[in-house]
């Protein structure tokens, strides 16, 4: 037994000497040292990168604003309310029957950015139009109730949108965008 112990001690001493030496010729040992060094370096990178990544995570406030709820009972027939969502204006419009019928009537009017009125509101809810209130030309905020189509007119360069928010004239290339939203109840929508 003492002899066995002596051999083990000799082996450990030889190992330690090899580790201390830079001339280690054992490929498996070199691999281990390289892997250990790489892992240590990766740990260093992770330690440096984490605060940066953490800073890029949205704060609680931002997360809270990534979706908002809106109570439709605040809006009267024929009225539009503008809410802020992700720093953008969103138009929530309670359309009159006239606005709806004009919008549906223009479904096949050779639209620049073709879309039926039905595709721009939730099924069975044609009275509620929810739009990002940003002109698709250069980003101004259009005004409702102006222009020849009874919808929105952009004050910057004269783009005209109809009562479905579809582009009908002027330089804007696209319809006013419909944000991602859903009905939580008959009187409440969640945007985002
Ligand atoms: Fe609206 Fe130019 S930004 S027409």
Describe this structure in words.
- The chain is of the alpha+beta class.
- The protein folds into two domains: 2-54, no CATH class; 62-191, Rieske [2Fe-2S] iron-sulphur domain (Rieske Iron-sulfur Protein).
- The protein has four helices and ten strands; from the N terminus they run H-H-H-E-E-E-H-E-E-E-E-E-E-E.
- It has helices spanning 2-20, 27-56, 60-65, 97-105; strands at 68-71, 80-85, 88-94, 128-132, 143-144, 150-153, 160-162, 167-169, 181-185, 188-191.
- The strands form three sheets. It has a four-stranded antiparallel β-sheet with strand order 5-6-7-8. The protein has a three-stranded antiparallel β-sheet with strand order 1-10-9, with no helix packed on it. It has a three-stranded antiparallel β-sheet with strand order 2-3-4, with no helix packed on it.
- The model is unreliable at 1-60 (pLDDT under 50).
- FE2/S2 (inorganic) cluster is lined by residues 135, 137-140, 154, 156-159, 170-172.
Task: List the keywords.
192 residues; alpha+beta; Rieske Iron-sulfur Protein; 2 domains; four-stranded antiparallel beta sheet; three-stranded antiparallel beta sheet; 33% helix; globular; disordered N terminus; binds FE2/S2 (inorganic) cluster
Largest sheet composition: 4 strands, antiparallel
Count the strands?
Answer: 10
Radius of gyration: 33 Å
Shape call: globular
Continuous helix count = 4
CATH topology of the largest domain: Rieske Iron-sulfur Protein
Output the structural class. alpha+beta
Q: Ligands in the structure?
A: FE2/S2 (inorganic) cluster
End-to-end separation in angstroms reads 74 Å
The neighbouring-strand order within the major sheet is 5-6-7-8
């Amino acid at each position: 037994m003492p002899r066995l112990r002596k051999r083990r001690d000799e082996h450990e001493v030889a190992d330690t000497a090899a580790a201390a030496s830079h001339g280690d010729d054992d490929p498996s040992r070199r691999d281990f040292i390289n892997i250990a060094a790489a892992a240590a370096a990766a740990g260093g990178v992770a330690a440096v990168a984490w605060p940066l990544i953490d800073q890029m995570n949205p704060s609680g406030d931002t997360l809270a604003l990534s979706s908002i709820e809106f109570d439709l009972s605040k809006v009267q027939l024929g009225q539009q309310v503008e809410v802020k969502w992700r720093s953008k204006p969103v138009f929530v419009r309670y359309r009159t029957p006239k606005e709806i019928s004009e919008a549906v009537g223009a479904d096949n009017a050779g639209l620049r950015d073709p879309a039926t009125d039905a595709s721009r509101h939730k099924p069975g809810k044609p009275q509620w139009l929810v739009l990002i209130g940003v002109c698709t030309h250069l980003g101004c905020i259009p005004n409702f109730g102006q222009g020849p189509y009874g919808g929105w007119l952009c004050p910057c360069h004269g783009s005209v949108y109809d009562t479905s928010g579809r582009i009908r004239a002027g330089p804007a290339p696209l319809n006013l965008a419909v944000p991602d939203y859903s009905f939580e109840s008959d009187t409440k929508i969640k945007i985002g």
